[in-house]
Amino acid sequence: MRLVNRLLAVLLALALATGGVLVVVEVIAERLDKAPVVVDWHRIYSWAETTSLTQGSVRVACIVTAVLGLVLLFAELRRGRPKRLAAASDSVDAGYTRRGVANAISRAVNDVDGINSSAVKVRRRRIRVRARASGVGTYTAELLHEPATAAAQSQLANLELKRQPRLQVRLSTRRR
Amino acid sequence: MHADRTNRAALIVLALIASGAGILGALASFGVFGASVQHRPLVDNPVSRYFGREGEWLWPVVAGVAGLITLACLYWLWVLLFSTDRTGDLRVAGDNRFGRTTLVPGTIAHAVTDEVASYPGVVAAGSRLIGDPDIPTLVITADLEDSADIAAVRRRIETQAAEHARQALDRPEMPVQLDLTITNRRTSRVA
Question: How far does the CA of residue B116 sit from the closest CA of chain A (Å)?
Answer without folding.
Answer: 14
